[in-house]
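Weekly modeling sync, notes
Attendees: S.R. (lead), two postdocs, one rotation student

Agenda item 3: backlog of single-chain predictions. S.R. asked that every request posted to the team notebook include the full sequence so nobody has to chase files. The rotation student volunteered to paste the first one in as an example of the format we agreed on. Action items at the bottom.

Example entry:
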Amino acid sequence: EGGSFSSGDAAEKKSQGPKGGGSSVKVRHILCEKQSRALEALEKLKAGMRFSEVASQYSEDKARQGGDLGWMARGSMVGPFQEAAFALPVSSMDKPVYTDPPVKTKFGYHIIMVEGRK
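Predicted structure, as returned to the notebook:
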């Protein structure tokens, strides 16, 4: 993965599926059971608080620190979460691009950001 993007490589990746392509994404999320709490978390993000800090304060999912879910393969996520994750551009914690409004699944409300795609 030395960052060499030959044209053949890019075309191959594009044909793997709907917009965005790729077969897995490196995801962070903030999961709140209540919509009001998720919206509160969004306000914190908009005020410039780091995604990982908001996640550790607001997310119900304490499994991983900072909301980091790591690499997740297409097909391993619940429908709405997956759609949102693959539609997001890759962004960094310094300039995160996240789902606004939060995405509703059977688990609650997720604010999702994507840190990588492959």
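Discussion: group reviewed the output briefly. Confidence is low (pLDDT under 50) at residues 1-18.
Action items: rotation student to repeat for the remaining queue; S.R. to check formatting next week.
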